[in-house]
Design a protein that fits this description.
Layout: H1 11-14, H2 17-36, E1 48-50, H3 56-62, E2 69-74, H4 79-95, E3 100-105, H5 110-115, E4 123-128, E5 131-137, H6 142-160, H7 187-200, H8 204-217, H9 222-237, H10 242-251, H11 256-268, H12 272-285, H13 288-305, H14 310-323
Parallel strand pairs: 1-3, 2-3
Antiparallel strand pairs: 2-4, 4-5
Helix pairs in contact: 7-8, 7-9, 8-9, 9-11, 9-13, 10-11, 11-12, 11-13, 12-13, 12-14
């Protein structure tokens, strides 16, 4: 697939002047503290780390005050994301500490996946002084990757005063073998890219059609399932007055459509447990076709959050109790 968002445009907008000044002060303070402690040379630290939701604060946010952190979202079944990780890992060694690579497996880190607004993998972001910015999505030629990394490093220094400290070659990760040249994209991959592009452009009806086309050929494609669920959710809440919808749901607990709309708004607003709880309660109160409609919508919302999320696991258990 061709990379998307292959640009550093928008970085200045994301990095407000106040935040840049604070970042410079933090970076200078950290360097002064190391000097006061007698640490003339920085202690060896890994240039490639595997980040989780539990370690994100320390491994990414805190570290981003001293060095640009590049986050690569990947999935085991997405071969291109693993190919890109191999390139980024090698480049992390070649750049010798001017950036740190953090890899995040999407199914193990659903909250990070959602918070960064990832639409598919591979997807690469950067964090500078605690501020996230998109770099690109899709498998990219190495010369384009290095161009973006060079821009990122320049912005980090000029805008934030953040300069990663050079690491001794002995502490750099072992050089992996040169990855095989990327294979040509398959028709299914091209269709998935078209679906992602439509979603990025706000063409929700086009994205829905495109994701359905992918699933018609590959019913088990997890990336297409997630994209379809997201596009359908956003399409349903377009133009909805949140206050009026919530009032209607509160006034009419038996109105299935009102509860479905309120649950969609709950999920978009980040109130995941409320959305799931509302629909489980609605399943409990309904029968026949209405019950099945609510059950199917709840399963669609599970797709948006991800099957391994503990809130989904808990809601599945609650749903099973109601149904059986």
């Amino acid at each position: 697939m061709q990379p998307r968002n292959m640009s550093m445009s928008g970085v200045v907008d994301l990095a407000a002047v106040k935040a840049a000044g604070e970042a410079k002060a933090k970076a200078e303070q950290a360097r002064a503290q190391r000097q006061d402690a007698g640490a003339d040379a920085p202690a060896a630290s890994p240039l490639v780390i595997e980040v989780t939701e539990a370690t994100f604060e320390s491994d990414v946010l805190q570290r981003s005050a001293e060095v640009p952190v590049v986050i690569s979202f990947w999935a085991d079944q997405a071969e291109q994301s693993k190919q890109l990780n191999a390139v980024l890992e090698r480049l992390a060694g070649e750049y010798r500490g001017r950036f740190v690579l953090a890899t995040a497996e999407v199914y193990a880190n659903q909250l990070l996946f959602q918070q960064f607004g990832v639409q598919g993998v591979p997807a690469v972001f950067a964090v500078l002084a605690g501020q996230a910015m998109p770099l690109f999505q899709g498998l990219a030629p190495e010369d384009q990757v290095t161009e973006v990394l060079d821009q990122l490093i320049a912005v980090a220094e000029q805008r934030f005063g953040i300069v990663g400290q050079e690491v001794d070659p002995g502490t750099a990760p072992a050089q992996p073998q040169e990855p095989a040249p990327p294979r040509p994209a398959t028709p299914q991959e091209l269709a998935l890219t078209a679906a992602h592009d439509a979603l990025d452009a706000g063409d929700l009806s086009g994205a829905i059609r495109a994701y359905r086309n992918v699933l018609a050929d590959e019913p088990a494609n997890a990336e297409a399932k997630l994209g379809l669920a997201q596009a359908q959710l956003l399409d349903r809440v377009q133009g909805v007055d949140p206050q009026a919808a919530r009032t209607a749901a509160a006034d009419a607990p038996g109105d299935v459509q009102a509860q479905l709309t309120a649950a969609d708004l709950d999920l978009v607003g980040g109130h995941v447990e409320d959305a799931f709880g509302r629909l489980v309660d609605t399943v409990r109160r309904t029968f026949g076709d209405e019950r099945d409609t609510v059950r199917v919508r709840l399963l669609e919302l599970f797709e948006v959050i991800g099957p391994d999320d503990p809130r989904v696991v808990a809601a599945r258990t609650a749903l099973a109790r109601v149904l059986f």
